[in-house]
Amino acid sequence: MILTSAYCLIIASLASQIVDIFIKFKIKLSVFLNIAAIVTLLLELIRRSILIKYIAITNTYEALIFYSLSIILATTIYQATSKKDFSRYITFIGTIIAFITLSLSSTPLADNSITPPIPALRSNWLLAHVALSFIGESFLAVGFAAAIFYLATKDEEKKVYIEKIIKNSISVGYPIFTIGALLFGAIWAKNAWGRYWGWDPKETFALITFLVYTLYLHLRIIAKTKIKTTVIISVFGFLLTIFTFLGVNLLLPGLHSY
Fold it and tell me: What is the DSSP letter of 110?
């Protein structure tokens, strides 16, 4: 019931944003709808946490909810603070990403049964690993939304500002993702499996994702490479985050349960 309410709020937000594209309103109704969706998703995670007596980001279902919440939050922060007229397009793309992510929680990919986590998953290092990974990726999602709009528009003046959004979003998301996915992930792996690194498929693709975004920042900030090239690399980087999260479990199963 709670999750259904979140779906409805996000759909209403998308509808509001579509109307806002054609009719410019001074008050951004979608901001309030997104905030309501964030609160609703948070309530669902709190409900599950109470039932399992642990913070509920211990399986794919809960991770998808947390990731969707994080994307909506990052998108809403951008939407509320941006004064550029065309920011509504980037916000719209970001909200679609959040909706798709949340929709996956209702598919066979995610078991929504409420089960207390096994002892190996009852670790503060795991919580930090998972939470920071998704928070970092939520900012990368904003960068991805901006990159899609950059590639779609032909207005060179807009592209200059959009590219700054891409760089700034990645500059925020990259270190958070790195600390969460790689550093805290390695510490948790040592506690759970007795080693920091084992070339598990998910570990390997997290490292590849890190290297792709490292390449982006190097080419963008240091090498001053052609902007369109770095934008395409940023798109590839975000698609890798999605594959690392969901695709690896389907195609390259390893020690990670999600």
Answer: S
Side-chain-facing half-sphere of 24: CA atoms under 13 Å: 7
Same domain, yes or no: 123 and 201? yes
- The helix or strand, by DSSP H or E, that contains position 99, with its residue range, turns out to be helix 87-103
Would you say 41 and 68 are in contact if contact means Cβ atoms under 8 Å apart?
yes
- Residue pair 98/145 in contact by the 8 Å Cβ criterion: no
Torsion of CA 199, 172, 98, 147, to 10 degrees: -100
Check whether 1 has a pLDDT greater than 90: no
Q: 193-207, pLDDT tens digit by residue?
A: 889 998 999 999 999
**What's the pLDDT tens digit per position in 41-63?**
999 999 999 999 999 998 999 99
The residue from 59, 94, 117 where one domain ends is: 117
| pTM check: above 0.85 | yes
List the structure tokens of 141.
Answer: 């999602």
Six token digits for residue 68: 């969707």
- Compute how many other C-beta atoms are within 10 angstroms of the C-beta atom of residue 74: 25
One-character DSSP codes across 40-73? HHHHHHHHHHHHHTS-S-SSHHHHHHHHHHHHHH
What residues make up the domain containing 209?
Answer: 119-258
> Total structural domains in the chain?
2
Q: Which helix (H) or strand (E) holds 88?
A: helix 87-103
Query: Closest by alpha carbon to 41, among 65, 8, 13?
Result: 65
Instruction: Say if residue 206 is exposed, middle or buried (CB neighbours under 10 Å; 0-12, 13-18, 19+).
Output: buried
**For the chain, what is the total number of helices (H) and then of strands (E)?**
10, 0
Residues 176 and 209 in one domain: yes
- Per-residue pLDDT at 26 exceeds 70: no
